[in-house]
Amino acid sequence: MTRHYSAFGLLREGLRGHSGWQPAWRSPQPKPRYDAVIIGGGGQGLATAYYLAKNHGITNVAVLEKGWLGGGNTGRNTATIRSNYFYPESVALYDFSLKLYEGLSRELNYNVMLSQRGVVTVASSPAEMEMAARLVNAMQINGTDAELLDRDGVLQKAPLLNTSDEARYPIFGGTWQGRAGVARHDAVAWGYARAADGFGIDIVQNCEVAGFLIEGGRCVGVETSLGTIHADAVALCVAGHSSVLAAKAGFQLPIRSYSLQAMVSEPVKPCLDTVVLYPGTGTYLFQSDKGEIVLGGGLDRVPSYAQRGNPPMQQTVVSGMLEMFPAFGQLRMLRQWAGVVDVVPDSSPIIGPSPVSGLYLNGGWGTGGFKAIPAGGWLTAHLIATGEHHEISRPFDLDRFATGRLVDEAAGSGIAH
Amino acid sequence: MQLFLCPFCGERDETEFTFCAEAGKTRPEPAAEVPADAWARYLHFDHNPKGATREVWLHATCGEFFLMERDTVSHAVAGSHSLRRPEA
């Protein structure tokens, strides 16, 4: 039933009054058993299901989603994709993801609207310029594209930036990653869902996991709101709710859940064609294809499972925007929302086996899971299919908290979470 | 802005407070004999509950660490308690 999307198909449907479109995926009732059950129908879970089928030929798979597809962090993030990290392990992961994103629309036959408009991170002091040069050098050594910009270079990328002598965060220069960009986040979830469905994978929405079937220390299935489902392997791809499900399986994780907010302004004419981040203000923003200014910042200060966000961080983010782009003070804000993100002490994800055999972890993405959807799915699928780590996911195993081999990107690249 | 309850200063703006840790953890001793995974559990692993929780917070303006009971979904604060031991 999955039809190939093409310009010709669009034209044909246009002439027929769009009467021939089929649903992009089925909505089946779950079967009593599967080879693998993926908990969480966000980008990570759907990508895991897709790569299980595509890379490993495992198609007897179900994706269980308690709400609707992409209704969690996949539909709440600010859609930025980049690999400007410091450590080799991180660049290997996020650049692999960026490369998969570059071919994703064609691979999935679904337009994810990837726009590689680049990310500029502004340095506001000579000391920050030193750190920017260090990051650029590290990125280049690790094999991804990076460029150090001077003040004129930054202003060429974003001419509306604050050039006042009075600026609290004056522009000294910055880092530039030209392959970075943004994509349509819903389309990433829907594209993976449609492609996974095409392989015969069951995507079951409104199906909440209430507990795990554990026999002899091994996870052999899940109890859900739609009944018991047996599975040889189960994967947790539930972001901010990782700790909640881990508790049901009887273990803890090094994760704390926080609200991460974002907001958009009213749409205006094109005025910003790149993504801009100020580490000084913590605010980053870009202009969406619809013309809205999309902006976000750091985590709320209060651990939370509330998908709404607190006023102090809104104030910080908007103040940051006004410092960076004084002209945007004329904008009216349209919407504000938040997602619940799973923050790990070293700001790097957790991919690997859990303490319960047969149950695998894909989480701890914190504020950065969207950019890693293709890689996270690919690596989790590899883990489920082979029982072994892919070399890229090995450093992100849960064991790093006992061995001390943390991949501390909060210190390395100064990311906000 | 939400008001949090400091057991010493009363209700104050949430921006004056800093989250420190979940309540109820005990540092494993003696340090030299604690295995790595027990240290990891003490340092990093938590319940991170959805709903009612007990946490150690710092009221930065008065410098006092205290215990706060609150809800991680509704953000309602149920109460705050001093962590000081009663004087003997």
Please explain how this structure is put together.
The complex is a heterodimer of chains A (417) and B (88). Chain A contains 12 helices and 18 strands. Chain A is α/β, with parallel strands linked by helices and 417 residues long. In chain A, strands 1, 2, 8, 9, 10, 11, 17 and 18 form an 8-stranded mixed beta sheet that branches. Chain A has an 8-stranded mixed beta sheet with strand order 5-6-4-13-14-15-12-16, with helices on both faces. The longest helix of chain A has 16 residues. Chain A is globular. Chain B is mainly β and 88 residues long. Chain B has one domain: Folate-binding superfamily (Folate-binding fold, 2-Layer Sandwich), CATH 3.30.2270. Chain B is built from 1 helix and 6 strands, in the order βββαβββ. Chain B has a 4-stranded antiparallel beta sheet with strand order 3-4-5-6, with no helix packed on it. In chain B, strand 4 and strand 5 form a beta hairpin. Chain B is globular and about 45 Å long. The chains are: A alpha/beta (417), B mainly beta (88). At the A-B interface, helix 8, strand 15 and helix 11 of A face strand 3 and helix 1 of B.
CATH topology-level fold name of chain B: Folate-binding fold
Strand order within the widest beta sheet of chain B: 3-4-5-6
Q: Considering DSSP H and I runs of 4 or more, what fraction of the residues of chain A is helical?
A: 25-40%
Q: What is the H-and-E element order of chain B? A: EEEHEEE
Quick take:
Chain A is of the alpha/beta class and 417 residues long.
Explain the layout of strands and helices.
The complex is a heterodimer of chains A (417) and B (88).
Chain A (H helix, E strand, L loop, with lengths): L6 H9 L17 E7 L3 H14 L4 E4 L15 E2 L6 H15 L1 H5 L10 E5 L2 H16 L5 E4 H7 L15 E5 L3 E2 L2 H14 L3 E3 L4 E7 L2 E7 L2 E10 L5 H8 L6 E12 L7 E3 L6 E4 L4 E12 L7 H14 L8 E11 L6 E4 L5 E5 L9 H14 L13 H4 L5 H4 L5
Parallel strand pairs in A: 1-2, 1-11, 2-8, 4-13, 11-18
Antiparallel strand pairs in A: 3-7, 4-6, 5-6, 9-10, 10-11, 12-15, 12-16, 13-14, 14-15, 17-18
Chain B lengths: L2 E4 L3 E4 L3 E6 L13 H8 L8 E8 L4 E8 L5 E6 L6
Antiparallel strand pairs in B: 1-2, 3-4, 4-5, 5-6
